[in-house]
Structures are given as C-alpha cells and as structure tokens.
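Handout, section 3.2

Students often ask what a structure token actually looks like in practice. Rather than define it abstractly, here is a full record for DUF2490 domain-containing protein. The first block is the sequence as you would receive it.
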Amino acid sequence: MKKLLALAMIMGFGALAPPATAAGPAPTFVEDDGSWLQMVGEGSLKIIDPKLEKTRIWLEGQSRYDGDFSHWYQGMVRAAVGYSLTERLTVWAGYTWLPTQNIGKSFVSQQDVWPGLRYVLPTSFGTLSLRTLVESNFLQDSNVRVRPRQMVRFMHPLQAEPRLSLIAWDEFFIRLNDTPYGGQAGFDQNRAFAGLGWSFNKNVRTELGYMNQYVENLTHTSDTMRHLIMGSVFINF
C-alpha cells in the first residue's frame, strides 16, 4: 500500500512541471493570486425511494477570483448522476457549465458532458481517492475538445483530533485533440492542493488550504501559474 501511495503522489505532483519540449526557448509564464470558493453536495437517492439506494446525485458550484483577489473571472456549476457498483466504486455521468470573463477578453461560456469514475480506498492511515473524468468541452461553434482529467486525493485524520484532517490532492488535465479555441493536443493544466479539513459531523465537512494551478496556454507558448486560497464546504445526504 505504501508503494501504491508513493507512486500515486509521484505521478500526480510530478505533473506540476511543464512537459518536455523540443529544443528552443523555454515558455514564459505569468503569476497571479486569487481564491476559489466551492460548495459540494452529494448523496443517495434513497431519500426519494429506498430502491434507489445505490443511485447517487452530485451537485457542485464554484466561484473563482484572480487579479490579486480583485476580479471574478470564472464560475462553475456541475451536476451528475451516479451509481455505486460497490462500496468503493461509483460511476458517474455529468454536465458542467463554466462561464468565464478574463480581463481584456470576450466572455466565454463553456459546457461539458462527461462520464466519470471514482474509487475510494480506506487504509489504516487515511483515505485514498482516485477520480477520473473524460470531458467533452463544447467551446465555440461546433468545436469539441476531449480532455481527460485525473485526480489523486489523500485525507489523513489526526490521531489527537479525528475531526481535523490533513488533505492533499493533485489533478492533471490532458487535451486529446486540437481545436481552434481549445488549444493543441497535449498537456493542459495541473492543480495541486494542500490544506486542512474539519468534520462537523458525518454530513458536513469543510476544507481550507493552498492550491497551485499551472495552466499551459492554448498554443503551448506561455503559461499561467495561480497561487490560490481554496475554501470548500461538503454536504453529504
């Protein structure tokens, strides 16, 4: 198990580094500070009908700020329906709406549809979670970008105070195809988070920490690195 965790962390946090390129000038990048706020609700539909115990619903909303915390630039609304194949494995089908207003650029409304898979592995020293989404990003006109994304997440409750947990996760994104508005195929971005979580009870949990977002631009010539404070509220039902 220790070898599995080590391999997962190497694969995930290793994605922070930009991919190797052919000989030539290194890509330039800009840095920015901001914050992401999110609320996530997830639960079984057995509250509607006991026969739907294995059917799940996932609702999520985010608000994102950059420009040294001064500018709202992006929102996110996500909804999905899932089915628990086992206690550890759940499959999902979902939809995401991503409105974006970057400074000096036109408003963009991206819509995504995706299948997903989540595997949760409890261990004696914490919980390891793996989440895979394969997004079809509808950007502009009829262009569709296919973008898989993989998250590796670990939560370790503290022995002295089990309600308090150490949280670390990494998620990387890959573009599978070229599109005029979605960029060239290849590495897209990486997100890495480290922080603390607090469980008020079995149904409500909060997390607060630092997230580093490394984004390669659409033509692979310049990059953006955001230093973000991320706050989350999770509600289980």
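Discussion prompt for tutorial groups: The longest strand covers residues 28-44. How would you have guessed this from the sequence alone?
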